[in-house]
């Protein structure tokens, strides 16, 4: 077995093939994720409006059951000290509290109700044929850039 | 099977699938689920402009760009292969409330009265796309994450700052829906 490993030395793996091979799985997860986003209508402006108007349980059900599934998964991964397939131990960086989580959170909430989308659904909406959302996405990139430029003046 | 898949998926199918993204990304390479970071990586890759916030090795975070590229592709595949045969079902009360805000197109995922190239230069079109998009980008970065990074990933990992962020997202959305929209979409 050792010889096989040497035959395919990492040196030959550099370049675009290597990049594709290591990153394609994330792309595939993204594809499935995007299909769920559109088919469960999470990317719909109307579903987000229903959520904020308390007229449908759908989005609460989606987010709630996603969080519960995520919690159980993270608990199990930690409990059994599972490693990633790359051999890396799984470690999640803790979130540190900063005032931005309130101020920025509110601003994002405003934007969420206006656009009917968080960053993920923006990409799915464009894919689903709403090409005008490209403008929304570019504006979101501009907003991110503006934060980078102004952050030293913000709490 | 295809017929069933073409209909809108219920929350108890979609939610757990989205939740499973968390362990999948961790198992694939110890990656923390989060989407708004992709916007930061795009800034760092395309126009860092010497800002310290964008001075980092974005190439190490390329997986995130593949991930959002996949979401875009997933959006295409969903409408191409599994188009919903029925019109979107919207709660009657919300339909009524939105009609009062002059939203009249209830056929698709987004109303054309607000989201279309022909309306992009109207006040309403600019508010929902340009202003809304800017707030999404600025707000998520200031908050250090979005619905995926805080509400799903952060809460899954029992992080209380993520709960603070999630509550703020909801409060912001409620304020905009109940007090902002009636004023902005008049």
TrEMBL record, chain A:
Tell me yes or no: is Transmembrane among this UniProt entry's keywords: yes
The UniProt keywords, alphabetically, are:
Membrane, Transmembrane, Transmembrane helix
Transmembrane intervals: 24-45, 57-77, 102-124, 130-150
Q: What is this protein called?
A: Uncharacterized protein
**Natural source organism:** Siphonobacter aquaeclarae
From TrEMBL, chain B:
Cell compartment(s), UniProt: Cell inner membrane
Which terms are listed as keywords in the entry?
Cell inner membrane, Cell membrane, Membrane, Transmembrane, Transmembrane helix, Transport
Q: What is its main location?
A: membrane
A GO cellular component annotated for this chain's UniProt record is:
plasma membrane
Q: Where are the transmembrane segments?
A: 12-30, 63-82, 120-139, 160-181
> In which family does this protein belong, per the annotation?
Belongs to the TsuA/YedE (TC 9.B.102) family.
Instruction: Please report the name of this protein according to its UniProt entry.
Output: Uncharacterized protein
The organism is Siphonobacter aquaeclarae
């Amino acid at each position: 077995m050792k010889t096989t490993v040497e035959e395919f030395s990492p040196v030959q793996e550099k370049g675009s093939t290597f990049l594709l091979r290591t990153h394609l799985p994330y792309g595939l997860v993204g594809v499935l994720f995007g299909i769920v986003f559109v088919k469960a209508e999470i990317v719909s402006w109307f579903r987000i409006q229903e959520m904020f108007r308390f007229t449908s349980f759908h989005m609460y059900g989606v987010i709630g059951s996603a969080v519960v599934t995520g919690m159980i998964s993270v608990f199990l991964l930690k409990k059994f000290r599972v490693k990633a397939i790359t051999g890396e131990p799984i470690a999640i960086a803790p979130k540190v509290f900063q005032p931005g989580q309130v101020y920025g959170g509110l601003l994002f909430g405003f934007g969420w109700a206006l656009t009917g989308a968080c960053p993920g659904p923006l990409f799915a909406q464009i894919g689903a044929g709403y090409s005008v959302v490209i403008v929304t996405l570019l504006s979101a990139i501009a907003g991110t850039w503006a934060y980078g430029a102004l952050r030293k003046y913000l709490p | 099977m295809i017929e069933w898949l073409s209909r809108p998926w219920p929350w108890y199918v979609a939610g757990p699938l989205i939740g499973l993204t968390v362990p999948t990304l961790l198992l694939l390479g110890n990656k923390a689920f989060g989407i708004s970071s992709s916007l930061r990586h795009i800034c760092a890759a395309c126009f860092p402009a010497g800002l310290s916030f964008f001075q980092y090795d974005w190439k190490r975070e390329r997986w995130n760009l593949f991930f959002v590229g996949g979401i875009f592709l997933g959006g295409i595949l969903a409408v191409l292969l599994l188009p919903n045969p029925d019109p979107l079902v919207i709660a009657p009360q919300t339909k009524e409330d939105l009609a009062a805000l002059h939203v009249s197109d209830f056929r698709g995922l987004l109303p054309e009265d607000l989201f279309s190239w022909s309306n992009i230069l109207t006040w309403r079109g600019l508010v929902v796309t340009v202003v809304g998009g800017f707030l999404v980008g600025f707000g998520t970065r200031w908050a250090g994450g979005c619905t995926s990074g805080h509400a799903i990933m952060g809460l899954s990992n029992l992080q209380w700052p993520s709960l603070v962020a999630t509550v703020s997202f909801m409060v912001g959305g409620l304020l905009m829906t109940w007090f902002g929209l009636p004023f902005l979409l008049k």
